[in-house]
Structures are given as structure tokens and as C-alpha cells.
Amino acid sequence: MKILFFHPERYLNIGIPSGIATLGALAKQHGHEVEVFDTTLLKPESYATSHLVSEKDVERNVSAGDETAPIVNGHIGIFKQTAVTLEDLVADDKPVDYGEELQRTIDRFSPDLIAVSAMTTTFQFACDLLNAVRHDAKVIVGGVHPTIAPEDCIAQSVIDIACIGEADHTFVELINRMSEGKDYTTVKSMWVKLADGTVRKNDLDPRFFDLDGLPTPDWSIFDERHLFRPYDGQVYKGSLYSQSRGCPMRCAYCVDPTIAEITGGRSGYFRVQSAQTTYRQLKQLYDLHGATWFKFVDDTFLLPKIEHLEELRDLIKPLNIKFGCSVMPNTIRPEKVALAREMGCVAMSIGVESGDPEIRKSVMRRYKNEELIERLKVVKDHGIRISTFNMVGFPGETREQAFRTIELNRKLGAEACNVYILYPYPGSPIAMKYDIPLRGEDGRIPDAIESGKLGLSQMSEEELEGIRQTFNAYLYAPKTLWPIVQLAERNTERGHATLAMVKRFITDMLSGCEIVTTPILDHVADLEVVGCEQPDLEIPHVFSPIFGLGYDQETIAKIVDAFIRHARGDDELLERNALEVDNPEIIDQPPFAGDLRSFM
Ligand code: B12
Ligand code: SF4
Q1: Exposed, middle or buried by CB within 10 Å (0-12, 13-18, 19+), for 47?
Q2: In the prediction, which pLDDT does 571 show?
């Protein structure tokens, strides 16, 4: 039987999804033919205007393991550039119409089953595309969204089957029955639309425990460019890898606590495969694809027992890989971090979420700022880069509380900080508490980026978006220049132009470039009017255009005052400068030695 997996991912949000790679491997093991329709590397015809793909879709996280962060979306470029960038990978590709491309794939491959993998944020896009094509296949959707919202999935005319939970057993059962012409409508964990229009809601399959029995994820069904892994100025090959399932924590903004309840309760929800299985699969991915850089997507890499990590270290150290992983702050212990480092860990993503202890407590993240600072120091002391994940817009949050998150990040000295406006996904405790509808009045699932509209915090949508845009600017800018950063919060042409100057200044500052200055007198004719008594004041040259943006006199006075205090050295410097932290390469793993053009 022919199965067309559908990975409806945002443009250039690369990384091979473990779910499809595992199900694809299982399907092949059972003799089925597999292909993937993947939007990640398809250049959209017009991503600035189409409702299917918008400019927002090229936004991405910055992990401390990644290449130079693009100076967009609030990120500041602080890492070394690589010779090849993500955009270079698609430079020669022609833009395509996604619907036409899917139709072409369907016409060529003639799938019996289209198997969509969907998160809440990608489901609408997948349905839009499926609505735009003709085919005779059955359509099944699996992944987080149908697990949390099966009613929503099965209600869509383009969907025939919604699969709840992990499908390593149930999907195989379904496709085998389908290909043998047997009744597949009774497979556990599946909600199936019947011929009479009713929906059969089968009971849930028991939780899946046999992780060691799973095949190595099949990366070969994906475009090889997914293996592009820039790190520290070099390019490696590798992708996402999952060795555990589930998470024992109960963060109120996350879907995991609900998934745990739906799929059999919290007890036994966290499962980790044996160290031998991880070793065997990583080795196989190295042998098959030359993979030496992995991103472990386990919810928290340091959660397994120390004995497990020791065994993993003994086995995978000789592989000489590098990897990044996510960790919960409360799992950070010096001996575990040391083991991770020995295994090849070079970057950790850490969910800080909020710098305000009260807010953190309200979302079930109970620890003190001091503890967080101490634990992150342990990570840094092992030469591991840190990227933090933060949110603004928590229920009841004030501007002051949001700034505590900026202040805390200034002390943490992370190499990269990501910030989002809280979007309570359906099924998360916050979404349930505040009764947040899954679909908007137009019947569509709103884009997560519009979450500021929900009005959960005490900040307006504009203010939240402004803080999101300038979060990294506040983080790295000397405090004396914060009044200028505040002007950059505004969603106006002037605000954007100001933000561009701030980012240029910070990037120069962080990369150690000489800060060229220019006399204030070249820009402000009458210093007295703006209250400046320093005619010899020099300002950073990158800010020169700020005086041509049409700010009123009072604002110009504030800007000049900021420059005076900055020149006087009133700055409260970062307590630990991110760039001073050494990142010793204990593991001497050479980067991908082949021809870089093989990625293109
Ligand atoms: C790796 C990852 C990514 C990767 C790859 C995505 C992917 N599809 O794998 C990238 C970087 C692209 C990504 C991006 C985002 N992610 Co993400 N991601 C993950 C993460 C950490 C691991 C996924 C994984 O590999 N799991 C292991 C595999 C084996 O499990 P699985 O994918 O669930 O697959 C199993 C089942 O779901 C099912 N299944 C999956 N697909 C299919 C398909 C069919 C046909 C069937 C039958 C079954 C089936 O069977 C699989 C095997 O058992 C999860 C958290 C988690 N632990 O799952 C978050 C998670 C999925 N992401 C999440 C979020 C919020 C995001 C972002 C919005 C983050 C952001 N702010 O940018 C973006 C959204 C991107 C977009 N386009 O909108 C949320 C989703 C919440 C929701 N309600 O949808 C999660 C659950 C994290 C969380 N706990 O909140 N993510
Ligand atoms: S946010 Fe992370 S740590 Fe918290 S419940 Fe979700 S997966 Fe677990």
C-alpha cells in the first residue's frame, strides 16, 4: 500500500520530525511504499501575501547550537557565520504553489493513504492544502493536535481518520488491515468517519512501552537538506532525535499534562529507551547519513537516572558526536551535566519562561531566581552553550513582571534567548481555565503569533508585541540606552527604523567591532533646546539617522540624555557577558568533510 506522509511545516523550519521518520520506517518494515510531502523546503510562491504561508512563517527559534542568528524577529546576531546559510540551501529553487505541488505529488505517487502529522499550529495549513487538491486516498491525521482535539480534526471534511496518541502500534495495525482489505474502522485509538457519516470512536490503545523494539527513524524519506546543521562557523550533518517519550512535569501552559491524562495517566508516562538502542540508532544514522550533530528532542534530556546517563556516556562517547538538547532547570545537577558534556553535548535549551517567581509559581514552575542562576552557571562552567526560552503575556502579568524576565536573562548570560507571547494551546491547563476557544469567529485556528489578542495579561496587544520584538535588544543593550529601545517597541516605521539601529549597535558591540562615534553637534543644531550642556558629546555613529526620524523635541531630549549617560559610563553592564564564556571543544569532532554543495 502507498502511504504519502504530509509534514506541513513552515518554510525553512528544518529538522526531520521523529514521528514521521519512525512511522515511515515501521511502514516500510511491513512492506508498504512510503513518500513524504514536506513543505519545509518548498519555496512559497509569495509568502508575503498568501494566506497559506506568510512572512511570519519564516520566523524560527534560535538555539545556541545554530548558525548566526538572523537579525530578524528580535534576535541579535552573535554567533559565527557559516560559509553556507539556510537561505543558500534553497537559493536555486523555484517558488512553487503549494497546492499545485501537492497535486503533482498525488498524481505521480497515487497514494492509498495520506498521513498528516499535525500540531495545532500546522493543522489549519494542512487542511487548507488538502482542500485545494483532488485525490482518492483516505486521509489520516496524527500527532499532538488530534491527540488533544480529535473532535476538531474529525469535523474537517478533508479528514477521514484521527489518531489519538502515539501510533507506533496502531498505525501499523491500521495500514496492514487497510492493505489486506480488512475492517480498519475498529483499530484502537482511531476515530473513523463511517460511510453513513457517523464517527466510530474506538477505545484508546494501551500506552506504548516497547521503545527498544522500534526501528531507527528513516531519514532517507526526507530531503537531505534537512541534515544541514551549522554550528560555530562550521557545517555538520544531522537532525532531530528522540530517545524518550513523555514528561512528568505539569507546566500550566503546556499540553503535556493533558496528553498524560488522556493516554493513561501520569504514572508511567515518561519512558526512555535503553542506552544501547540510542547508541545503535545514532551509529546507524552516522553510517547511513554521516550524521555527527544531533538535536535531542526529549522534553528533558537530563531526566533519566544517573546510571542511564553513565551507560549512555560510555556507549556514545566514542561516536564523537556533538548534540544539543532541552533540559528542565530542576533536572540540572553537576554530575549529570558533566556526563552530558562528555557525551558530546555542546548546547542546552532551557525553559526559563518568566523571571517573576510569582508568575512562575502560577504556571507550576517553582524555583527561585538564584537557583536558576546557579544551575545555569553549572551548565556554562561545563562549556555548554545555553539558549533560554521565555514567554510574556501570562495571565495577569504586568509590564514590570515582564521586565523581570529580561532582568533575569541579563544575569543568566545565555548565548541565545527566545521569547514568545504565551499561546495557551488547546488542552493546556491555562486554555482550559480561561476557556480559550480553539477556533476564531472565522472558523479558523488562529496563528499563535496573534495570541496577544487574548488579553490574558495586563499589557495591551501592542505592548506585548513591542516587548517581544525588543526583548533581545533590552537584554544586550546597555541600560543607559533603554529609553531608545523603548522607542523601538512601537509598531511604526519610526519604531522599526529605531530598532534596526539598536540591533546594529548591539551586534557591533557584541562582535567586538570598534564603535565609531560622531559629534552630536553634527545632528542637533540647538543643544540648549534639548537640554544638552555637552557640545563635545560623541554619539555612536549607527544612531545618526535617529535625528532624522521626526521625533518631537521632548523625545529628542530623552534620546540625547540617554547618549550623555551612556558616554559618561553610567551603564550597568551585564553581570556575565555571554561572549566571554569559553566553549572549549573537549571533543574534537571534525565538521562535515564533504562538499558543502551536496546540501544545496
Ligand atoms: C521536535 C519538535 C518540533 C520540531 C519538529 C516538529 C515535529 N513535527 O516533530 C520543530 C522545530 C519544527 C517544532 C516547531 C514547533 N513546535 Co514543536 N515540538 C517538538 C517536540 C519537542 C518533539 C516532537 C517529537 O519528535 N516527538 C517524538 C515523536 C516520536 O513523537 P510525535 O512527534 O508526537 O509522534 C508520535 C505521535 O504524535 C504520532 N504521530 C505523529 N505524527 C503522526 C502522523 C500520523 C499519520 C499518525 C497516525 C500518528 C502520528 O505517532 C508518533 C509516534 O508515536 C515536541 C514535544 C514532544 N515531546 O513531542 C514539540 C511540540 C510538538 N511542539 C510544540 C510547539 C508549540 C511548537 C512551536 C509552536 C514552537 C514555536 N513557538 O515555534 C513550533 C510550531 C511550528 C509550526 N510550524 O507551527 C508543541 C505542540 C503543541 C500543540 N498543541 O500542537 C509540542 C507538543 C511541545 C509542547 N509540549 O508544548 N517542534
Ligand atoms: S513545558 Fe516542558 S517541562 Fe513543562 S510539562 Fe511541558 S514538556 Fe514538560
Answers
A1: middle
A2: 67
